[in-house]
Design a protein that fits this description.
alpha/beta, two-stranded antiparallel ribbon, single chain, 3-stranded parallel beta sheet, about 40% strand
Length: about 100
């Protein structure tokens, strides 16, 4: 489980990342996963991909192998899924909503 700061008890590791409108941080329990563990990132929405890329960076920093991500909704016009693919992560979604 990856959360914003202050949401998880115990020892945590985290990563700061930039958003279009500022910065944020993701954290996870320090012992949540480790070297060589295979992880699939699952989230409700992929838009610009900033948060998902930060999650991938955090998971990889503790040695996890992440090469797949799944989302309920993709907003393809915002390019997030393409950014994940460029980082070596296959992206799956249930529905895509293209804008005009």
């Amino acid at each position: 489980m990856l959360r914003k700061p202050g949401k998880l008890p115990g020892k945590r590791v985290g990563v700061d990342y930039e958003l279009e409108y500022g910065s944020d941080r993701l954290e996870m329990h320090a012992d949540a996963c480790g070297e060589g563990m295979r992880v699939v990132l699952v989230d409700d929405l992929i838009a610009t991909g900033g948060t998902a890329l930060a999650a991938i960076e955090l998971l990889r920093s503790v040695g996890a192998v992440i090469d797949r991500a799944a989302f309920v909704i993709d907003l393809p016009d915002l390019g997030g899924a393409d950014r994940l693919r460029d980082s070596g992560v296959a992206v799956h979604h249930l529905v895509a909503f293209e804008g005009d």
